[in-house]
Amino acid sequence: MSNTLQPAQPPHRVVFVVVPPVMAHDLSVAQAVLGDVRTAGAAGAAGQGAYDLRVTTPDPGLVETVAGPELVIRDGLEHVEAADTVFVIGGGARPDVDDRTASVLRTAATAGKRIVGCCTGVFVLARAGLLDGRRATTHWHVLDQLARDYPRVTVERKALYVEDGAVLTSAGAAAVIEVCLHLIRSDHGAAAAAAAGDLAVAGPARSADHPQPAAAALTASTTSAASRSKPRTDRTLAATRAWAHERLSVPMALADLAAHAKVSERTLTRRFHTETGLSPLQWLLRQRIDRARQLLETTDLTMDRVAEHSGLGSPDSLRHHFVAHVGETPSSYRTRWRAPAGL
User: Fold this and answer.
1) Is 88 buried (19+), middle (13-18) or exposed (0-12) by CB count in 10 A?
2) Which class in CATH covers the domain with range 4-199?
């Protein structure tokens, strides 16, 4: 699948605000995922980047990282004014946020810019007052501290990322990929997000309410000696999810998924919820809706064929699930996202 979009839209300006100390991985991953999305050029050739990326910091120069060598960042916060999206990364759980940085972020929010805080960058937004009265999340290791230090923030403990109006917050590491894919889907549609996920080798995008691994870690730490002596049954279900994802057009029941995973239906349901935050059939429905979105964006298939290829059965079923989960009919979605013919 090509990761190229329709032309005639200027690059979306993303300005990263890096507050030391920063986890360099979070910055580089976000740059890589967003930087790979390109518009279509003449005669189908790859065109310009769909996102114009700029990295800034309050005090340009050498910027401290959590681990590894320092970063050299030459641009300052004056570039935030031109941003469409402001991406805040770093700072630690007790960030040193001066009045100038807080003011720049508050001005950006007031101007209606989309604001994204990743990992401990969420604490920078909280210090600037941008999360007061909002829902937010961060890395599970510092969720308690976020709740304790900022009582006006509603902390979501079982989410990879949270979108509350124009402000998004996410955990770190792999969750940065997920929030970037969500931004691409919001800006350019499901097909572009799927292509970006393929380039990042991320697999099917996880939903915002996919749980962070804290619960699994706590469960493992409290396992009794007796239970540890039992045969292991905690293999990941990634292979079964991949198998199902390749067969979305085929009718699938809970028993089919359990048979592939070689576990009971009860064990499948429990482990599916632990790994995805959803029941097996809820997860399957989300994948089918996402497949339908991609088909509506990138093909001229009739609604009958879209419903068939996505495994949603009939046009009536397709319409029902689209209205319930996407908020509009399949026809209006296609009109809004369909690339011009010939691209």
Assistant:
1) buried
2) alpha beta
Q: Which residues pair with 204 in a beta bridge?
A: none
* Amino acid in position 339: A
Compute the CA torsion angle 314, 318, 324, 330 (nearest 10 deg). -150
Contacts of 13 (CB under 8 A, 6+ apart): 51, 52, 54, 82, 83, 84, 85
What are the domain boundaries of the chain? 4-199, 236-343
CA distance linking residue 339 with residue 299, whole number of Å = 9
Residue 137's Cβ-side half-sphere holds a number of Cα atoms within 13 Å equal to 22
What string of pLDDT tens digits covers the 343 residues of the chain? 445 555 457 899 999 999 999 999 899 999 999 998 887 544 444 567 899 999 999 999 999 998 888 999 999 999 999 999 999 999 998 998 999 999 999 999 999 999 999 999 999 999 999 999 999 999 988 999 999 999 999 999 888 899 999 999 998 778 899 999 999 999 988 888 888 888 776 655 565 655 565 544 443 444 333 344 343 344 678 899 989 999 999 999 999 999 999 999 999 999 888 777 788 999 899 899 989 988 998 889 999 999 999 999 999 999 999 999 888 999 998 988 765 433 3
Task: State the Cα–Cα distance between residues 203 and 200, nearest whole angstrom.
Answer: 8
Structure tokens at 185: 């889907």
132: left (phi over 0), alpha (psi -120 to 50) or beta: beta
CA distances (Å), origin 306, targets 5, 191, 317, 337 = 21, 14, 11, 15
User: 133: phi > 0 → left, psi -120 to 50 → alpha, else beta; which?
Assistant: left
* CA angle (228, 233, 237) in 5-degree steps: 140
Tell me the residue length of the chain: 343
Q: pTM for this one?
A: 0.76
Pairing of strands 12-19, 85-90: parallel
Q: How many CB atoms within 10 Å of residue 95?
A: 21
Q: Which CATH class is domain 236-343?
A: mainly alpha
End-to-end Cα distance, the chain: 13
